[in-house]
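User:
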Amino acid sequence: MFLSVFDMFKVGIGPSSSHTIGPMVAAARFLDHLRAQPFAVAGVKASLHGSLAFTGVGHATDRATILGLAGFRADDYDAVKADAEMGRISAEQTVHPAGLASLRFNPKTDLEFNYGPALPGHANGMILKGTDGQGDVITQVTYYSIGGGFVLTADELASGKDANDDLPAAPFPFTSAAEMLDMAAQSGKSVADMKRANERVCQPGVDLDKGITRIWEVMSACIDRGLVTDGILPGGLNVRRRAKGIHEALLAERGLNLSPPHTINDWMSTYAMAVNEENAAGGQVVTAPTNGAAGVIPATIRYWLDHVPGATSSKVPDFMLTAAAIGGLIKFRASISGAECGCQAEVGSAAAMAAAGFCAVMGGTPEQVENAAEIALEHHLGMTCDPVRGLVQIPCIERNGLGAIKAVSAASLALRGDGHHLVPLDAAIETMRQTGEDMSEKYKETALGGLAVNVPNC
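Assistant: Predicted structure:
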């Protein structure tokens, strides 16, 4: 198994990695499929299933699918051009992707929200279709958005084959936390060092340091935008942005000896909320490992850099590589998808990743890093995904703040010990997987249970 740090941390747009970025990626893959066909296609259609249907409007899944079919990509998304193109598509009922003829597409009739049973492969399923001049379907592909912006076709999902299977063998091919610790002990390397070695062998042409630096720059810029932007978030809930006001109050209190020690939690929460308010507004974010959990890791890094003596930006790559190693284990052995395992798989995974990264840059041993991740994940077990009106706002924005606080607390507890503990990380990950399987569909990003039905949302 090899999941790159750039698989776990991808630049994209809000509000959802699985419901916004994933459908856009699927649409891009479908356009490649059409370009490879020996026959001409006159039009395209799309149907959204399962969670993509139930919370699709709140997550802008319809918009992402339409723009994806028009050739837009999440990693270089231009909001102004996208708005203009959406207007043109609505008026002219065509899309013009590069390398293909003009294709008929009426957003009102050619994009279907199918509220029946989910497709068999995953809760986030969509079918993209190509039609002939008579409107008959002549080719179609089923795609699954499996969390964090990862997309597989039905055939890929059934075969179990991964796009990274053909890469060179990694020097430290750990697929469990136990293997990770054994390899660290045998090699004398840190988790970050092993992950760095894997990246350089499996992706020799990639400038690792430059890529990680860009990821952190996008994360940091997202925090900064969120800290200076106020107003009401889109979607109809009339949720007011709060990060700017809280941040201004915290700045005003500095040096006045007015704040109790626990105010440091407000700083962490505000950094995370700034990111997730930007995400809710459809801004540029980094999956970490998902959009719904995008604030936890940036907030923890910003807390470390701005509030912990001795912190240095030169260690940010170690934080990110360590976090990516833990995130890869969780994705491989369980899930990072809220539609599959609830919010324990999103904010819980992000907190485990952040705790591991923070522990590493604070000088933790591999055993302490594994312990930090386990503590953080363990105390998110059972957390449901119940977004009010299907929007990534309530409870998601505040939940990221609490995830960052838990991450730092988990790392601090781990650093107070010697790395020996009763519950291994592998057991916590397996428990999360089993809990997700047992969890009612109402609590897995469908907005059919929990807060989503107990909070007035109109």
